[in-house]
Amino acid sequence: MTQTHKEQVDDLGPPGCEVLIVGCGNLLRGDDGVGPILIRHLWERGIPDDARIVDGGTAGMDVAFQMRGAKRVVVIDASATGAAPGTIYRVPGAELADLPPLQGLHTHSFRWDHALAFARWALGEDCPDDVTVFLIEAGGVEPGAELTQPVHEAMEKVITLIEKEFLAALRPTDDPGGLQVEFTEDGYLRMGARLAGSRFPSGAVVAMIRDDQLWMLPLRGPQSGGLLLKQRNPTGDRAVLVREALGDRVPVGAYAAYWDESQGVLRVPLEPRT
């Protein structure tokens, strides 16, 4: 194999990323599907540009190759230890030395430890060494069942941990020069990519008038209803139709805004105008 050909083959791998998050499990068997379901929730909330998510319940052994180029890997799967359903286990990479053998492995039995074992075998030195595994104890795993309440609550806790420890640092921060939005004559509110990415990652919002201000409340995802932020240009600036919320008070032009941490909303004072 020539060097040129080898470089071309290497280019076929996935792009590098800061964080790769993998959800393993069978989506069709109740709590066993908590990994793939968690991945879907993360996707609805919005993923930073330098992070990638993989549904290991459908990707099979391809999960291992997805790890190539990732600086950090987070794996989520269900467990069956006999503990109370919803119990969360965190397994840091340092404790992942003993992994199962690869003999007899097939996609129908592909779980988190198989994914890591296969990745080490397939990728060798290219396998990431910064790996964290979250296991959520399953309750019901009947075919066609939904997540049980304890497992759903545990999933939300793991999502919070992942956001805080692995994703938050990758999200754009607010503009240090101050926040600003623009109202158009046809009733749209426009915001920059930095503001949209840091405060409205799911692209879904609720708009309301409170105390002579427009409040913009981020939602967890489009399935929650509300308004959708639409991309305006390749740089990621967004626009959302707020005319109905404003009623007969449709301003035009640039307005200062600020993020209210206590309320978790973007507040836009409608007077005075900047």
UniProtKB/TrEMBL annotation:
Keyword set, alphabetical order: Aspartyl protease, Hydrolase, Protease
Alphabetical GO biological process terms: protein processing
Entry annotated with the keyword Hydrolase: yes
Signal peptide bounds: none
UniProt-listed InterPro entries: Pept_HybD-like_dom_sf, Peptidase_A31
GO MF annotation list: aspartic-type endopeptidase activity; enzyme activator activity
Pfam families: HycI
Family: Belongs to the peptidase A31 family.
The protein's name: Peptidase M52
Organism: Pseudonocardia asaccharolytica DSM 44247 = NBRC 16224
